[in-house]
Design brief:
This protein has one domain. The protein is about 5% helix and about 50% strand. The protein is built from one helix and eleven strands; from the N terminus they run αβββββββββββ. Strands 1, 2, 3, 4, 5, 6, 7, 8, 9, 10 and 11 form an eleven-stranded antiparallel β-sheet that branches.
């Protein structure tokens, strides 16, 4: 596998982005690349419905949590995971996978899936349009939500920080 140098990371068409949140001693970080809309139709075209997508561009998106977190009632053990999604018009299936260091979803292996969670997907109200694929974390004390935004579509996953370690 090829690992990008600092100069290569700066010159990418889809730049690297990091989003994080902390509650007490629990820390969650997501590292991903931000592809641009550039006038293209995104969901259903560039990102086909019903197919595994890397949730961004370049390397597969990675989630790191220092303590266990609760996702839709499921415990995700502390560690680093690859994130994928299967987008549909009204829902996405978020996939948390134990394989790391992957380029895109080309070598995605469902046997390494740790958890799958369905998220509602919806049209972003108002006139907001996200030119770049964006992941946000909105936090309220020990609860938070991951928000995936691109074009006029959003998918939201609530989660809860814990103080549990393996």
């Amino acid at each position: 596998m090829h690992f990008a140098s600092g100069q290569e990371l700066k010159n990418r068409i889809s730049p690297l982005a990091i989003v994080s949140a902390k509650y007490k001693k629990s820390y969650v970080k997501i590292t991903y690349s931000q592809p641009r809309k550039n006038g293209r139709e995104i969901f259903g075209k560039l990102v086909p419905f019903g197919q595994v997508w890397r949730l961004g561009a370049n390397e597969a998106t990675e989630l790191t949590c220092t303590n266990d977190i609760l996702l839709s009632g499921n415990v995700l053990k502390s560690g680093t995971y690859s994130l994928f999604a299967i987008p549909e018009k009204e829902k996405w299936t978020l996939i948390i996978n134990s394989d790391n260091g992957l380029w895109g979803a080309y070598n995605y292996n469902s046997k390494a899936d740790v958890l799958r969670v369905d998220l509602p997907a919806s049209f972003i109200p108002g006139n907001d349009l996200y030119e770049s694929f964006t992941i946000k974390i909105e936090q309220k004390t020990d609860t938070a939500q991951l928000i995936f935004l691109w074009d006029r579509t959003q998918a939201i996953l609530p989660f809860t920080f814990t103080e549990s370690k393996p």
